[in-house]
Structure formats: C-alpha cells, structure tokens
Amino acid sequence: MALKEEIEKRRTFGIISHPDAGKTTLTEKLLLFGGAIQKAGAVKSNKIKKHATSDFMEIERQRGISVATSVMGFEYKGVKINLLDTPGHEDFAEDTYRTLTAVDSVIMVIDCAKGVEPQTRKLLEVCRMRKTPVIVFINKMDREGKNPFDLLDEIEKELRIDLRPLTWPISIGKTFKGVYNLYEKSLILFNQGEKQSTENSIEIKDLSDGAIDEIIGEHFANILRHDVELIEGVYSEFEIEDYLEAMISPVFFGSAVNNFGVRELLDGFIKIAPTPRSRETDLKIIHPDDKNFTGFVFKIHANLDPKHRDRIAFLRICSGKFERNKNYYHVRENRTLKFSNPTAFMAQEKNVVDEAYPGDIIGLYDSGIFKIGDTLTEGEKMNFKGIPQFSPELFKYVVNADPLKTKQLNKGLEQLTDEGVAQLFTKKTDNRKVLGTVGALQFEVIQHRLKSEYSASCNFEHISLFKACWISSKNKKKMEEFIFEKLHHMATDKEGRPVFLAESAWALQMAQEKNPEIHFHFISEFKEE
Ligand code: G4P
Q: Which H helix or E strand runs over 233?
C-alpha cells in the first residue's frame, strides 16, 4: 500500500475525562467493537484505581501492566484505530498531557449527572492549546442527570467550546428510551440490560410519522419533536471543517456500560476524525506524507523488573515510513541508532514490527538514551515542538540517605526525570536538588524506584514553594540583575535554564509587576527572549 493510503487509513486518538465519568468502560466497549478484546473486564483490571492512592506499590504494579494498554490498536470497518490510554489518576495528569501531544483528536467523556468537572477543564485546556479536535460523549444516560439542553449550555460556557449534537436523548434515567440520530434520522432504542444491536435502530423518514408515537409513546414523541425543532433553531449546521479546526465539537449521548450509543459514536468517529495531522518542528512543518521518516518520543515506561533497567520509549511516527533495522538519527544525542525489535501494539499484544506509518505508535527498547520530547529523523537536525513540561505544583528537597551511593542516586534522579516522573531543579546558592511534581504520589514512586532500580536511598525535606517558572528576557542586563537579586530563589533546570522559585502567589505577582522586562513562563517550551 502506498504511504498516502496508509495515512488515510489511520486515526490516532485519546479519551479524556474526569475520573469515574466512564473512560475505562467506553474504552472497553470500543475495543469490543474492534474485536481487540473478546470480553469485558480486560481493560478494567489494568486501571489505576482511585482507592489505591495510598498504595503506590499497587499503582506501580498497575502501571506496569498498563504498558499493554498504553496504546490499543484495532481495525474497524477498514480503519486502523490507535487509541492511546491516558491515566485518569490525577497524580499522573502530566502523563496525560504528554500523551495528548501524540494524538490527532480526542473523545471527551462527560457524566450526564455531574457535567463539567475539574479534570475535564484542565485536559480541555491542553486540547485548546494544541487545537485538537474534540468529540463529546455524554455518558450514563441510564441514570438521572441534567436536562440535556442545560448540560450542553454548561459545557459550552464552562469549557468555552461550541457544540453541535449529532444524536439526541429521548428522556433520561429510568425512562430513558434511547437516542435519535439527527443525521441519519433514525431512532436507536434502549433496552436496559440488553446488548444493543442494529435491530434496535429504526429509520424515521419524518418526525411527524405517527409510528414514533407507537414506539416511544406520544408524550416522549412530542418532546422529541419539540427538542429537534429547538436544536435545528439553536445550533448551527455541523460542518466537518469546523470540527477539524477545533472550532466546533459534535456531541453524542449514550450509556457506555450498557453499550448504548457507542456504535453511533464509533461510526461517527471514523467518518469525521482527522487522519494523522501535520506537526511543527523548530525548522519547518512536517507533513505525514513527507517521504522521510520523522517521529518523537512522548512517553517512557520503565521496565518493572528491577534486574532489567531497560525502558520502553513510545514513539509517535509523524512522517514517512519507519523501518526495522534502518539507521535513524537521534537529534539531541547527535548519533545514529538502529532498532532491531521495535514493537507495535495491536489488540493488546506487543509484536515486533518491520514497518510503521504516520499515526502509529511504536515501542523502542531504551537503555537510557531517550528523553521525553526526543526527535528521530533520517538525518535532518530538527526538533518537534509542543511537547512541553508544565510548571510543577509540589516540591521537595532531595536528601541523600546513603552517601556511599551518591553516584547511583544522581543517575537514578537523572533517568527518572528523563522519563518525566518529576522535574529536577538545582538551587543556585547551595546546589541543593529540588524535585517538582504534579502529584504527591510521584515522590513515593521516586523513592521506591530509586531503591529498587538504582540501590540508592533518599529522603525528602519540606520546601515551601508555590511555583517554579522559567524566566527569559531580551534585556541581558535586567536578567542578570534579577537573578542576582533573587539568588536565593533561583535554580536551574536539567538543561541549565534559569528557573524562578516563587514562594507564594504574592511573591510571584510582585516579581512580575516589578520586572516587566522579565518574562515568566509556566510551560518549559517558550520562545527565548
Ligand atoms: P473512569 O475510567 O472514567 O474512571 O470510569 P469507569 O469506566 O471506571 O466508570 C466509573 C463507574 O461508572 C463504574 O462503576 C462504571 O461501571 C460506571 N459506568 C460507566 N458507564 C456507565 C453508564 O453508562 N451508566 C451507569 N449507570 N454507570 C456507568 P463502578 O461501580 O465504579 O465500577 P464497577 O464496579 O461497575 O466496575
């Protein structure tokens, strides 16, 4: 098959939601449709459970298993779908942000009773930054929830997006009858507890058809007619281009656990979701059909077996064709590498692949040469943009608990932070090391992994910090003055860039107000000024 056809066949996406909205359940149903799994429960058991928050060993174990579910590839109606798993656990939010750099679109799951929740808000912000097209799936329609019009209003206002329903629910909760497909003009009926099949779909030529009254009852039929009229009046026509430009989000309603509305979602998805998109490097825009291979690492997963310190680097292919045993250029390291056993992820199985195409994710065995964000090319020197680190929110000093193992500790910290488990800063005045994370759990994970993988011990000491932000300025003198003045609050990141450690929101605000020529950055990727 020609490169173009391979690209046209692929859809690479992720599902985002606030924990408990139904992401795992929906993932599982999609995989069942795609034949990637045979029975429900296969994904569920790999989920990092929220009640495991105090049990980080359990989380590590589940993280290990979750290598298998990191990328779930399956075919549906001739389309190759790559579904990238995003951890729902809040403490791993940064993993999720990074995974979103490797997808071309997302499905956002919303609980019909809860509406917009904090995690949804944060994740959507990342999608907005990247202009990622979003499809909304309103879940749990079998439960009592908000009025659908109110709910859509809330989502539009809270998330600042424009919506366009493509299916519409007929009642909700105990009296939920099903959905009306506004596009295909068909009724899909809901039978609680029964597996949904196409038999339940009834085509409707005209909403005034009396047959509808017989099927769902006059009361609900009239409400549906009224709702549809309102929808046509209130919402603009769905234009696929607007969705692809991330200007409008189509909405589907359903109940994942009952496998209801999932087929409509999947059919809609393969019709409209984008094929692998172009991506920006610091040199030029890379198009998927460019002849030369390019890709970037967006996730690194440690091997759980302490005897093997090797890791798996997840590479998103952006252009050209990737081939096994061919020489590729690792831009940051300025060296050529060849991969003899790259793996692809299909139907929850890992297999060695000979070739892979844009949109595909492959796993590369890594003995410590990769960092998140690394670019591979056929020789060109360039780096993919848009894989930033976010300014962390929790901080602790690292204290070496075993001075005989200083080397191991430093190596461990270096590698774990390359993996993106946390960020490492070194204070200017006393060279003390500060770890910054997004979630509290990461500290325990680091302590545990340093011990088991590097035989190093560390303790953490409290440091009172509000934010770490990167600083830059066109005015070199001002920059030097600022660093000198704030020396006790200055650190460097792993690349040696200056970072301001603000003790409080007030301290940060004051620093910003008093130093208008200094720019404070909250993500690691910014234009040097
Ligand atoms: P998450 O990955 O977004 O965290 O959510 P998950 O799929 O684990 O779903 C959270 C809970 O919501 C689960 O119940 C799940 O069964 C339920 N759920 C998912 N979709 C629907 C739906 O359409 N309707 C209803 N009524 N419930 C739904 P749980 O009790 O936490 O777990 P389990 O014991 O059922 O597995």
A: helix 218-234
Identical fold between 3-180+236-272 and 394-521: no
CA–CA gap between residue 458 and residue 444 (Å, rounded)? 11
CATH number of 287-377: 3.40.50.300
Ligand 1 in contact with 20 (CB < 6 A)? yes
CATH topology of domain 3-180+236-272: Rossmann fold (3.40.50)
| Atom nearest to 47 CA in ligand 1 | 2
Q: Which of 86, 128, 115 is nearest to 249 (CA)?
A: 128
| 394-521 CATH fold | Alpha-Beta Plaits (3.30.70)
What residue has token string 């340093």? 450
Q: Is 18 in the pocket of ligand 1 (CB under 6 A)?
A: no
Cβ 159 vs Cβ 116: under 8 Å: yes
Cα–Cα nearest to 344, from 360, 328, 359? 360
User: What residue segments make up the domains of the chain, in order of their start?
Assistant: 3-180+236-272, 287-377, 394-521
Q: In a structure prediction context, what are the per-residue pLDDT tens digits for the chain, which is 529 residues long?
A: 799 999 999 999 999 999 889 998 999 899 888 877 766 665 665 554 444 444 555 555 555 545 556 788 889 999 999 999 887 666 677 778 888 999 999 999 999 999 999 888 888 988 998 899 999 999 999 999 999 999 999 999 999 999 999 999 999 998 898 999 998 888 888 876 555 544 577 777 788 888 888 888 999 999 999 999 999 998 988 999 999 999 999 999 999 999 899 989 999 999 999 999 999 999 999 999 999 999 999 988 876 555 666 788 999 999 999 999 999 999 999 999 999 999 887 655 668 899 999 999 999 988 889 988 999 999 999 999 877 777 888 999 999 999 899 999 999 999 888 888 889 999 999 999 999 987 787 888 888 889 888 899 999 999 999 999 999 999 999 999 999 999 999 999 988 999 999 999 999 999 999 999 999 998 887 766 5
Question: Contact at 8 Å (CB) between 72 and 348?
Answer: yes
CA of 222 to the centre of ligand 1 (A): 32
Tell which atom from ligand 1 comes closest to the C-alpha of 21.
3
